[in-house]
Amino acid sequence: MNRILVALLLWLSVVSHSALASVLAIDYGSDWIKASLMSPGTPFDVLLNKDSKRKIQSTVGWKKEDRLFASDAFNIAGRFPTDSFSSLKYLQAAPYDSPAVSYYISISSTELLETSRGTVAFRRSDGSEWSVEELVAMQFAYIRDLAETSLGGEKVTDVILTVPPYYTQHERDAVIDAVEIAGMRTLALIHDGSAVAVNYAMTRTFEKPEYHIIYDAGASSIRASLVSFASVPAEPKSKQLATQITVHGVGYDRQVGGTEMDRRLREMLIREFDKKHHKDIRADRRGMAKLWKEAGRVKAILSANTEAMASVESLAFDIDFRTKVTRADFESVCKDLKQRFASPIYDALDFAGLTMDNITSVILTGGATRTPMLQAAIKAAVGDDKLARNVNTDEAAVLGAALYGAGLSRQFKTKDIRVGDINIHDIQVSYQAEAKAKSDAAKPRTINTVVFPAGSRVGSRKTLTFKRKDNFAIQLNYKNQPLAGYPLDILEAEISGIPEALGNLTERGAIDPVVKATVVLSDSGFVSVQDAVAFGEIKDDSITGKLKGLFGSGSSSDAAPTEQETLARSEAPEDESSSESSATPSPTPTPEKKVSPKDNTIALELKINLSSIPPMSVAQKRASRDRLAAIDREEAAKRRKEEARNSLEGYLYRVRDLLEEDSTTPFMKCSQEQERNSMREKLDETFSWLYDQGDDAQTADYIQKRSAIESIERPVIHRYKEIEEFPKALNSSQMWNWSTRLFLTEAHQNLTASLEDPNAPPSKYTREELDALEKTLREHEAWLHEMVEKQKLVKMNEDPVLESSVLKEKAKKLENHLQRLVKKKPPRVKKPTTSSSASSTSSTSTGEQARETEPAGGHDEL
Ligand SMILES: *[C@@H]1O[C@H](CO)[C@@H](O)[C@H](O)[C@H]1NC(C)=O
Ligand SMILES: *[C@@H]1O[C@H](CO)[C@@H](O)[C@H](O)[C@H]1NC(C)=O
Ligand SMILES: *[C@@H]1O[C@H](CO)[C@@H](O)[C@H](O)[C@H]1NC(C)=O
Ligand SMILES: *[C@@H]1O[C@H](CO)[C@@H](O)[C@H](O)[C@H]1NC(C)=O
Ligand SMILES: *[C@@H]1O[C@H](CO)[C@@H](O)[C@H](O)[C@H]1NC(C)=O
Ligand SMILES: *[C@@H]1O[C@H](CO)[C@@H](O)[C@H](O)[C@H]1NC(C)=O
């Protein structure tokens, strides 16, 4: 069984801060995006929108030139119906001509077109075209930016996403393509039901195994996942327990959900409008978009009330539309849905081979479970006592996914929760039978064998053995159409180099060598052909060879193929701890031939040919990424321009106020008439420039206009700054003057004493040293005196003759000279007495001690 370690955060533990990366979890719904960030040192919670909302509307759009996200983008649909893109989840890898796309067209007012890959793109009102992947990528990037902002700018690249368990390989590819266009990396995909189960298990222990159904009713679908929870030893024979979550069955309905209810409610409104006004609103994109929004609003009101008033001003044809909608009427148009609400639960039970008796509870989650008629249907189906509302309706999946992602990255201190998930579509391998004889060119037979039946564990692999002589290709495809109009084919793998490899093995004594191909079902639910080899047992006369023959290790003799090309055997999953956790949308071919140590397998060449809806190519993704980056750059430039303009405008008003103030303000006191005049002149000029040409100007123009006025203002500001600074600098300067004088007086006394009294301690300083300092001091005093006198004559609105910076610089020179002497080592004492030796020790002071003798206050200031 596949094991994925998932973690409950008792607390986030930081191993080494620099090595850690954050994990972003995204639950991308049809109506709402929920996101959560797992980051060292950050509280674990859902990510908040710019306006502190916990869920973010899944919409991107443009209001003319400006790109908008979330509710801003949703709310403009009524004005710009072809520029607001919602419910994109319906369209991930949807074939352009499929019923899913027709359905989308019935709920959306956008303009669709087909991409070169056969999927959907949109045409905006400005004519530009955007693929679904690009629009989803923009939303992923928007979420990423929110996350990075919340981390103070730290980069976020690893993302884990929830997907519905029914998502096909193509749909999963579309999710990952969007992540890559957004410049991020997919850590894993997790089924949303399993993510909710992880969230459920976080705070619970399971003494004996329990079965629960996670019932998730979203906007675009309803799904039920039957999961078991059990405590298992973390390691074999270990006392430590882990929680094992196992998925046993899934049921779903891709045609029922909140959106379908919205659609039916809007149909009611359309009929009412038609009845009252006899006009066809369907042709009016704006009107339809407004009614869509109103239907959602009315549905929400009807969840809590038995009636609601629908009201749209100027809906279409200049008509203000108002009508009453009752819950009873709404429920009657949804009557046929009622039995569909509960059927995923029964499907999940059938899938798992269990009955409702085995189920402890049905855990409700998803926005559509707020609708009373859905609640009633589920209650009727499962009974009141089994209905559980013990997880967060909106956030359980994303929080579970974040924990799962944290477990994968193994950087967080975690509770041990393991998920054993399943694939729910039958996946088969198909290939052409080899012609029995050269002449037998009649009709090629196709052989189909299911390799991963529905219910197969993800994170497993199977080795297929073929008795083939020539190169051939195998296809992986769905046995049944996953959704009407969706393709069956997943990929094709051409295996070549077979005749040469078989010839080599035969030459070396192998009997009946075969071709083996390994197919993989990754943890994220992708299938691929991982490698292909030629294999033959070579007669080995050594002891180990004989032993191996005895125990039949690696033997394929039991395969006993009934026909030449039969798929002889599919082995049980080999490698249960294989780390297929990273999403691998397209397998990498292994072209180089290598021979195994046993010399009995030879790698074959694999060429993967992708399906009718291939994932985007590297070049396509790069092109999309460049388009998104261009928008980002444009928006950044626009923001900078906006900022420069605002800054200029703000500055102009401030300067105007300065000029209008009375004469007591520092600005007025420190400025000259002529300066003010020239500022006023420039100010008027700039105001009228801003008024006339401000809208077409460049960022640099705004900046240049501002600095033109600033250059006149700057000397004025400098003057009043100096008026503040100067006394402080002067004080400090005088302090040094004063300390130096004090020092000199004392040092002279010591020198005189040592010369006159032989018992006195020797002087630390020579006369020359003291004279030099005396000279520096006198020069400093003289300079200071002269400059201060000059400065006294300077008026407030004139530039100072003595700058505080110069004052500090000069004081520093004096200080340095003084410090040099203070730090000087005392001369050696010839005959140390106890007292003199003590004093000599204390004066052999380190720099730090010497500095304690510095004049107080002086050092800090300079
Ligand atoms: C499910 O319930 C049936 C009948 O109550 C019981 O026989 C069976 O063992 C249960 N299965 C599991 C897996 O608990
Ligand atoms: C078979 O493979 C071995 C190992 O790579 C190589 O040395 C040898 O030349 C090959 N023989 C033939 C006939 O291709
Ligand atoms: C690859 O797939 C395409 C589309 O299915 C098909 O037209 C083409 O022939 C295939 N190429 C090979 C080499 O099989
Ligand atoms: C003067 O001598 C005394 C006593 O020896 C000493 O503590 C002091 O640091 C000396 N002062 C100077 C400036 O050298
Ligand atoms: C420097 O200090 C001396 C002694 O304290 C004082 O007489 C003199 O006026 C000071 N000079 C200046 C410029 O402050
Ligand atoms: C000068 O500095 C001293 C010491 O830092 C302080 O006590 C005194 O108040 C200051 N005088 C002026 C005018 O700033």
UniProtKB/TrEMBL annotation:
Signal peptide range in chain numbering: 1-21
Alphabetical UniProt keywords: ATP-binding, Chaperone, Endoplasmic reticulum, Nucleotide-binding, Signal, Stress response
Gene3D superfamilies the record matches: 1.20.1270.10, 3.30.30.30, 3.30.420.40, Actin, Chain A, domain 4, Substrate Binding Domain Of DNAk, Chain A, domain 1
Pfam family of the protein (one): HSP70
Cellular component GO terms held in the UniProt record: endoplasmic reticulum chaperone complex
Bias (Basic residues) ranges: 820-831
Chain intervals for the UniProt region annotation (Disordered): 552-598, 813-862
Gene Ontology molecular function terms on file: ATP binding; ATP-dependent protein folding chaperone
Origin: domain of life: Eukaryota
GO biological process, one term: endoplasmic reticulum unfolded protein response
InterPro entries in the record: ATPase_NBD, HSP70_C_sf, HSP70_peptide-bd_sf, Hsp_70_fam
Biased composition (Basic and acidic residues): 849-862
Biased composition (Low complexity): 832-846
Name this protein carries in UniProt: Heat shock protein 70 family
Organism: Cristinia sonorae
